[in-house]
Design goal:
A 6-stranded parallel β-sheet has the order 1-9-8-5-2-3, with helices on one face. A 3-stranded antiparallel β-sheet has the order 4-7-6. Helix content is 30%, strand content 19%. Helix 1 packs across helix 2. The chain has a single domain, classed as Rossmann fold (3-Layer(aba) Sandwich). The longest helix has 23 residues. By secondary structure, the protein is an alpha/beta fold. It is globular, with a radius of gyration of 17 Å.
Length: 242
């Protein structure tokens, strides 16, 4: 595990964008394509906009990049809360990424079927081999959840590298999520976390007791890869070991 701490959000985003570029170039050089799973929510939007900016857009062979999602809200594709819609507006459209390179969750299907169909699409892309992403981008919730792996949910006990529909009792909504074993097949996992509001969750996940039911992000431990934490000073403020 590697922890990268930056002075502020601007430096943090630039650091992670540079890491994204490095990962993409290495993957394309090694096996001709870059398979990346994106995170949703507010935090990564600025990263995607930066990658699509003049500063970074020429640094990646975008025609060799295939985009997936670590999780998706079970809302229509045109809903403002839809992760794929956010990524399209922030990055796909400005970079003119073809639809054939974007693997979105079909939320028109019933939740379980949406998860099953997405898993089949992943397996198809990886030609039946274990779905090993070159990079998975993740965020961290105030409650220490990541992707749609929330505290106390049954999906935390899932042993298969798969895609599951997750029902959140507290919100009465579904999410579609990669399971922890699937995330842990990745070459690299990068958490993007910033702001003082995340400091407690960061400290609990990285330095607290091992308790995956309370702190699901502790499940992320790639088997043959690395996990990187990209933090600003505010999010890292409570860490004892920096």
């Amino acid at each position: 595990m590697m922890v990268h701490i930056y002075k502020d959000t601007s430096e943090l985003l630039s650091g992670l964008a540079a890491f994204f570029v490095k990962s993409a170039r290495e993957a394309i050089e090694n096996h001709g394509q870059f398979n990346v799973a994106l995170s949703g929510g507010n935090s990564p939007k600025k990263l995607y906009e930066l990658l699509a900016s003049e500063e970074f857009r020429q640094q990646v062979a975008w025609d060799k990049v295939y985009f997936f999602f670590g999780d998706e809200r079970y809302v229509p594709a045109d809903d403002p809360e839809n992760n794929a819609r956010m990524a399209r507006e922030a990055m796909f459209a400005p970079l003119h990424i073809p639809e054939a390179q974007i693997f979105k969750v079909d939320t028109m299907l019933p939740p379980e079927q949406a998860a099953e169909t997405y898993e089949k699409r992943l397996n198809g892309h990886f030609n039946g081999n274990p779905a090993r992403f070159d990079l998975i981008l993740l965020g961290l919730g105030d409650d220490a959840h990541t992707a749609s792996l929330f505290p106390g949910t049954p999906v935390l006990q899932e042993q298969a590298a798969s895609v599951k529909a997750v029902f959140l009792e507290s919100k009465q909504v579904y999410r579609i999520s990669l399971t922890a074993p699937l995330i842990n097949q990745a070459k690299d996992v990068a958490f993007l976390v910033y702001g003082a509001g995340k400091a407690n969750a960061v400290q609990q996940v990285l330095e607290g007791e091992r308790n995956i039911t309370k702190y699901p992000a502790q499940l992320v431990q790639p088997q043959q890869g690395d996990v990187h934490w990209f933090l600003d000073e505010a999010a890292a403020a409570l860490l004892r070991n920096k």
